């Protein structure tokens, strides 16, 4: 009877992810509602572990600035990201995003993560490339073990519960039901026949800017 009661109290968490803004620079909004019936999730840490495909990345310098102002808590694996690499030369990126409690709901958590689309190979048609974001894995850590452990599966995560520099704790994976199995990011792709024009314009612009800088140095510079 106890096993049946525990199973009845366990419901899938509901996960919603949404892309805000337009173009290459977006915000990934994640919302999680834990599915444990009749219990308050206050005091628990909730995180979303998601794997970003090569077509999208997180800027570690931007994250460092946000974390310095306590606007987000994120662990990147690997923590070194080549922000200039195109999609076809970039690896996947594993992200552990800590979610904040939603004051309007005792079992709800949310967080936003700035993400950026990478440049793709130009094509003959110039159509948009599609970057598919799978639904993230929901992780929970409750130090006082107040919630129903039968609802969770222990997982190995080398990250503290609080997001601060402290010893790793025991994380649990929560079964969840995504509002959508995947999210599609549309990234603009250039036309291959425009390659020569882009190279010429870039060369001319670089030459002009270099000439202006050199002229300003010669006119206003102080040489001993």
Automatic annotation (TrEMBL):
Transmembrane segments: 195-218
Main location, first listed in the record: endoplasmic reticulum
UniProt-listed InterPro entries: PIG-X/PBN1, PIGX
Ranges in coiled-coil conformation: none
Membrane topology: Single-pass membrane protein
Cellular compartments per GO CC: endoplasmic reticulum membrane
Keywords: Endoplasmic reticulum, Glycoprotein, GPI-anchor biosynthesis, Membrane, Transmembrane, Transmembrane helix
GO BP term, pick one: GPI anchor biosynthetic process
Record pathway: Glycolipid biosynthesis; glycosylphosphatidylinositol-anchor biosynthesis
Keyword Endoplasmic reticulum: yes
Subcellular localization, as worded in the UniProt entry: Endoplasmic reticulum membrane
Function noted in UniProt: Stabilizing subunit of the glycosylphosphatidylinositol-mannosyltransferase I complex which catalyzes the transfer of the first mannose, via an alpha-1,4 bond from a dolichol-phosphate-mannose (Dol-P-Man) to the glucosaminyl acyl phosphatidylinositol (GlcN-(acyl)PI) intermediate to generate alpha-D-Man-(1->4)-alpha-D-GlcN-(1->6)-(1-radyl,2-acyl-sn-glycero-3-phospho)-2-acyl-inositol and participates in the sixth step of the glycosylphosphatidylinositol-anchor biosynthesis. Probably acts by stabilizing the mannosyltransferase PIGM.
Family: Belongs to the PIGX family.
Protein name per Swiss-Prot or TrEMBL: Phosphatidylinositol-glycan biosynthesis class X protein
Organism name: Eurystomus gularis
């Amino acid at each position: 009877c106890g096993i049946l009661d525990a199973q009845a109290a366990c419901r899938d968490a509901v996960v919603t992810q949404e892309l805000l803004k337009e173009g290459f620079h977006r915000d990934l909004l994640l919302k999680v509602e834990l599915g444990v019936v009749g219990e308050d999730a206050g005091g628990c840490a909730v995180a979303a572990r998601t794997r970003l495909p090569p077509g999208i990345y997180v800027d570690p310098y931007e994250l460092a600035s946000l974390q310095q102002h306590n606007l987000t808590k994120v662990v990147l694996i690997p923590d070194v990201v080549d922000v200039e690499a195109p999609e076809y030369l970039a690896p996947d990126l594993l992200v552990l995003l800590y979610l904040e409690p939603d004051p309007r709901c005792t079992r709800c958590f949310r967080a936003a993560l700035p993400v950026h689309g990478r440049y793709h190979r130009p094509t003959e048609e110039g159509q948009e490339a599609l970057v598919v974001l799978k639904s993230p894995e929901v992780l929970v850590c409750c130090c006082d073990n107040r919630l129903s452990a039968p609802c969770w599966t222990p997982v190995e995560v080398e990250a503290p519960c609080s997001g601060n520099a402290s010893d790793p704790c025991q994380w649990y994976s929560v079964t969840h039901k995504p509002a959508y199995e995947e999210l599609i990011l549309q990234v603009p792709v250039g036309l291959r026949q425009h390659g020569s024009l882009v190279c010429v314009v870039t060369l001319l612009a670089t030459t002009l800017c270099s000439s202006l800088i050199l002229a300003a140095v010669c006119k206003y510079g102080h040489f001993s």
